[in-house]
Amino acid sequence: MKKIINDAEQVVEEMLQGAVLAHPQYVKRVEGFNVLVRANSPVQGKVALVSGGGSGHEPSHAGYVGRGMLDGAVAGAVFTSPTPDQVYEAVKVVDGGKGVLLIIKNYTGDIMNFEMAAEMAEADGVAVAKVVVNDDVAVENSTWTTGRRGIAGTVFVHKIAGAKAETGADLAEVQRVAEKVIANVRSMGMALSPCIVPAAGKPSFTLADNEVEIGMGIHGEPGTHRESLRTADATAEHLVGKILDDLSVNAGEEVAVMINGLGGTPLMELYVVNRKVAALLAGKNINIAKTYIGNYMTSLEMAGFSVTVLKLDGELKELLLAPADTPALVQF
Amino acid sequence: MKKIINDAEQVVEEMLQGAVLAHPQYVKRVEGFNVLVRANSPVQGKVALVSGGGSGHEPSHAGYVGRGMLDGAVAGAVFTSPTPDQVYEAVKVVDGGKGVLLIIKNYTGDIMNFEMAAEMAEADGVAVAKVVVNDDVAVENSTWTTGRRGIAGTVFVHKIAGAKAETGADLAEVQRVAEKVIANVRSMGMALSPCIVPAAGKPSFTLADNEVEIGMGIHGEPGTHRESLRTADATAEHLVGKILDDLSVNAGEEVAVMINGLGGTPLMELYVVNRKVAALLAGKNINIAKTYIGNYMTSLEMAGFSVTVLKLDGELKELLLAPADTPALVQF
Amino acid sequence: MATAIAAIAALAEIIIANKEKLTELDAAIGDADHGLNMARGFEAVRGKLAGAQAEDAASVLKLTGMTLISTVGGAAGPLYGTAFLRAGAVLQGQAELDTDTAAAMLKAAIGGIKERGKAVRGEKTMLDALEPAYEAFTQAMNEGETLLQCLELATEAAANGVEYTKTIIATKGRASYLGERSLGHQDAGATSSYLMLKALTGFARQHSPGV
Amino acid sequence: MATAIAAIAALAEIIIANKEKLTELDAAIGDADHGLNMARGFEAVRGKLAGAQAEDAASVLKLTGMTLISTVGGAAGPLYGTAFLRAGAVLQGQAELDTDTAAAMLKAAIGGIKERGKAVRGEKTMLDALEPAYEAFTQAMNEGETLLQCLELATEAAANGVEYTKTIIATKGRASYLGERSLGHQDAGATSSYLMLKALTGFARQHSPGV
Ligand SMILES: Nc1ncnc2c1ncn2[C@@H]1O[C@H](COP(=O)(O)OP(=O)(O)O)[C@@H](O)[C@H]1O
Ligand SMILES: Nc1ncnc2c1ncn2[C@@H]1O[C@H](COP(=O)(O)OP(=O)(O)O)[C@@H](O)[C@H]1O
Ligand SMILES: [Mg+2]
Ligand SMILES: [Mg+2]
Ligand SMILES: [Mg+2]
Ligand SMILES: [Mg+2]
């Protein structure tokens, strides 16, 4: 394991310290907790947004703490949901009197830990609402299983619900918009290489020299299948095909696209992928309102990428294009 | 070689197409050339900035084309300086009547190709000035060799000279500010792993399981030495030490810091590095005005990072903090 | 209570000793952290209990549950944490641990897990070790066996439950994403449940008057 | 002119055949692209000359130089490009290629490289092959040797120059960043210069009346 770290056990703590030192204008640490909140938290009179999850997905989620997106982010151990006490603390610190929306990715652990925190905060009289993001079409959606995973599409929920909260909307309205994003966002990824959880010290899976994993999860969970590496175009076509099988977008409708690097992928390759994704959408007369390209929801040093498509209506588009000022996403 | 591409020979072309499709609000292609310029080029009445170099350093340089930074970026073959005709074309397209500043990284090839382009453009009557960035303290600076290489510090030149140009300053003034940045910026990097030029198909060097290269160049040029991987803190201390040996910064003075990922490094590790870099500077009573952390000047999928320190005065600080709106760097 | 602390210490020992094994099981069909999470949690429990000599058994279990909830994370943290809290609640005010009380504790723990995780037996989770264990325990109890014998039979049933998880498709937890491809793999959480029962049985054997 | 085109084709062939070797040499002390760059350039030259049958020799050299400048990039592109442009300028208006003209062309090419690259002999560059080659060429010429013999001796001197680059420290080009650690390594650009002279010699041998 070759990593630029000091101590596998301290990596989350040291990362959080480094993040606060890098972005003091945006975030501050909640002392004693693995929680970063806006430097000016709590923002009074605004619904607050809290997200979080295991570490190792940086810039998710602390990178999206700032005006127009999140109010707080909770960091678990690497690839492990944070614990309820941590989430509870975040909720208490960011609440500005209008309640708190928890943005949870659909993993059993995340849901249970965030739910326990919500119960604790509600007992304190804080209004809490929850949304669960489940954009990964690699996993079959069915009610008798745990359903689809939440991956890069979560960033669109942060962006759009965050913009809505900034308008002064109430908790139910912010939750409604978040649910609308979730209903309209789909993603799927592929990996060229595994990654190594620092505390584990070795990769959780291995791939042969020319083998790739299609549809893997952002914690190295196995995907739909393995295959020989194909061209960027063929791979993009497969992923976009799966996404559009699940999300009906008609000719003339508008979408936002995210080409997300998993941490070890050169931007050059993401652009090559985007060329094909854009062409595929253009071929169906689907308009792209905005493309995000880069590392938004990573898996440590994993090489690979995911494609996310978000179907827009007037409301979602306006909120997507609204300003944001956070460490990892700035737009104006 | 495991890469998400279609054809090693077409990778620059397809990347440029993908970039224009991703960022139509920022950039357009100069037809027939590997040149991206601002969507609204030429901007009349403003000095124009052109940079470029080999491809494989994305988001450098096309990612910095936009308001407050560059006007045009020229992409060479992977890791190979662009040719004079390409640079010449960029200069002609972006010139808004106030002249063009070429921002060149200090490599023999880049200098010769950009100089030839400048001669061609000057023959056409375009006012052209040049600056050469040489921030890499891993290489000894001496007048009888080619001197130090230009690496991540180049992004600070783009940012600050770009902000100056935006004020309506004339070519000599923009050049003066760029030279001031160059005089005050130093960088040094280290690599955990090599990268693979697509057309070559194999890494240009190899490292043993626990071995790292200190001071390597962004094209995989060998560095000062190899050593066993040390802690993030020890490595950061070595690099910052080399930088401050060369750049005298006194207690109470202010700097900007860039912790730059080389393409395959998780952001988590960059934050761990930043924790130490910030502590080292704080220990010397040096104030950090702003920290940039992420992938700014990469070497394809190389794992590793560089640290850049830019000493600020009032003028540089104001220009650094000025707004920018480009695909890879937005601030307001 | 010294015995309760020692019993929890035995659980901590077996979990920490099997950190890698549990992580590897989770790697195959999950996200390769179950052993890391559980070991982190039980290290913390060890630390907490080191400064808690005087507490009664119910408090020890409660402290264990709270500590697991606030240090394990993932799915296992809330599930095992809730289980220990519920088991501790049963013990509240009980002077001694007899077979009946042990059965009630196991039942309460399983109830907590089912409530929190909304899973049932047969979904390839820890329940596939714990529910058969509970059944074996109560059957032995009804046949008049000693606490140690009940535990031994419960552990055996849990071991069979772990084997059984290899033969079924996961429909809860991270392995459910794999659908049919989860077949043939052993569930990590069922394994940690079995290990804890095994450690408890070993502990009971050492402290049993008959030995 | 068909002969000029065929001569350039011979250069293209040897460079393209040595693409990997030149890249490997550049990998050791540079950035691993010299072969790729030169091969890309000469592929383009091949393409350009395929549609240029009727041109005179000076134009062929000019076209070669321009094409190298606009396709090779890096250090080698401007250097070799300038060299071919300058050599072509010497040939302008010349009916036949005699030994004197060849010497003047070589001299002009080297002059262009020195002007563009601001290097001198002994800095571990292509000049360490080309300048000894020029000296050997003119010495042979002064001794009355044929063009072919002059070329053969020049090529031999270039080969020695390539060997010599292993013994010196680079102070120009990318290898200069290595300082002393550039010792022992052979310069890629000197090697491509030697290869081109070798190809020219081979070409001259085939077309020489004496053979
Ligand atoms: N809903 C559930 N009910 C009961 N047990 C579950 C449930 N979901 C997961 N588990 C158990 O948790 C184990 C995984 O724990 P762990 O790896 O620590 O959490 P995570 O899946 O969040 O990484 C699984 O092997 C399974 O036994
Ligand atoms: N200033 C110079 N003068 C003459 N030759 C040079 C100079 N700089 C570099 N070279 C030659 O160019 C070769 C490298 O060419 P190439 O690899 O194509 O360019 P780059 O160094 O830009 O990657 C070196 O091996 C050396 O022979
Ligand atoms: Mg987990
Ligand atoms: Mg090069
Ligand atoms: Mg797990
Ligand atoms: Mg080279």
From TrEMBL, chains C, D:
Record Gene3D superfamilies: 1.25.40.340
ATP-binding among keywords: no
Enzyme Commission (EC) number: 2.7.-.-
Keywords: Kinase, Transferase
Residue ranges of domain DhaL in the record: 2-202
GO molecular function terms noted in the UniProt entry: kinase activity
Classification via SMART domains: Dak2 (SM01120)
Secreted found in the keyword field: no
Source superkingdom: Bacteria
EC top class, as a word: transferase
PANTHER family the record matches: TRIOKINASE/FMN CYCLASE, TRIOKINASE_FMN CYCLASE
Protein name: PTS-dependent dihydroxyacetone kinase, ADP-binding subunit DhaL
Species name: Sporomusa sphaeroides DSM 2875
